[in-house]
Write a structure and sequence with these properties.
4-stranded antiparallel β-sheet, 4 strands, alpha+beta, elongated, 44% strand
């Protein structure tokens, strides 16, 4: 199955998966940005990780690049977009 097809399968509601350079992929989700609640950020990060693990199923572990991006969503100042880049690596 092609990587593009896998990216479409792994994309869950509220989570987007797109190709990144060097065989990696970028996972993103949107959270309520104005609440200031740590639980919102934690749930968003867990969604990113779960989508990355699903993406790597059968191909190794999802390894983060180590950087999480948080940006305001254009035209929706009450929302934040969280994104992280991952790679699938065999142990």
């Amino acid at each position: 199955m092609a990587l593009t097809a896998l990216l479409l399968i792994a994309a869950a509601p509220n989570v987007a998966v797109e190709p990144a350079p060097d065989g990696r992929f970028r996972v993103s989700t949107v959270i309520a940005g104005d609440s200031g609640m740590p639980e919102d950020y934690a749930r968003g990060l867990l969604r990113l990780r779960a989508a990355a693990e699903e993406q790597c199923r059968g191909r190794g572990r999802a390894i983060s690049s180590g950087t999480i991006e948080a940006n305001r969503v254009p035209h929706r100042p009450d929302r934040l977009s969280l994104a992280e880049t991952y790679a699938c690596e065999r142990p």
